[in-house]
Amino acid sequence: MRIANLAGRAVLLTGDGAVDVHKASGGVLGPDPQALFERWEEALPVLAALEGEAVPYADDDLRPPVPRPSQVFAIGVNYRDHAEEAELEAASSWPVTFTKFPSCLTGPVARVDLPEGWVDWEAELVVVIGRGGHRIAEDAAWEHVAGLTVGQDLSERIGQWSGPAPQQFSLGKSHPGFGPTGPAVVTLEEIPEPGDLRIGCTLNGETMQDGRTGNMILSVPELIAKLSAVTLLRSGDLIFTGTPAGIGATRTPPRLLAAGDELVTTIEHLGALRTTFA
């Protein structure tokens, strides 16, 4: 299934269009996309059996598929090639963890107003938690995943790297529109190998990042196990899992986003985000 947010209503995307979840379920499931994930175990069997009329839709009307997560976890330095380009110590036994505040989330087709500073890109696989839990075993972690989606961790580097103690990752990565996600949450049965997907982005048609999620240092199951060892994961939470090499700030000279740029972020089997800047 491909679960999406069409102008604020929960839909399933098919090859023929969008099926309205509330209407097709006869009111058993509500129209709110967030509620599907918060009631995931109850909603899943209804969604799996859903049949309804698919109607055409415009990509521009798609919103964040998980619009109001209670928690957004973001993982840093989780690809060795990115650690090398940034001259940082790679994650090893414990994930480098921060947050993107949920107010930064936007949809798969978005126009973002650039703040002052150096704004950079980071293509990321985003995990959507279905069944929450505390102290989830690594070998059971995929059972807690509702699905996967495409994410872009936009980052204002001057703000991110400022401060005495020692940096402001969360604030630097949470300006309005700095969390493009979508176009849909794709459930695992539609993904041949969810642990190894091609991921990348282009800027004005030029390839900036091209990697594979299988090259993460800490895999999706490891991240879920380690995060839940400390804190309670809730249904509908998001985990941005880190970015491969190819960001703009480490290039010589640095290449940062500017007004008029178009950034396209893709992950195979999941889809693409198109973000423009003003």
TrEMBL record:
Alphabetically list the UniProt keywords: Metal-binding
Alphabetical GO biological process terms: small molecule metabolic process
What GO molecular function annotations does the UniProt record carry, in alphabetical order? catalytic activity; metal ion binding
| SUPFAM superfamilies referenced in this protein's UniProt entry, alphabetically | FAH (SSF56529)
Does this entry carry the keyword Metal-binding? yes
Show the Pfam families listed in the entry.
FAA_hydrolase (PF01557)
Residue ranges annotated for the Fumarylacetoacetase-like C-terminal domain, each copy included: 72-277
**Family note:** Belongs to the FAH family.
Per its record, how is this protein called by name?
2-keto-4-pentenoate hydratase/2-oxohepta-3-ene-1,7-dioic acid hydratase in catechol pathway
The organism named in the record is Actinocorallia herbida
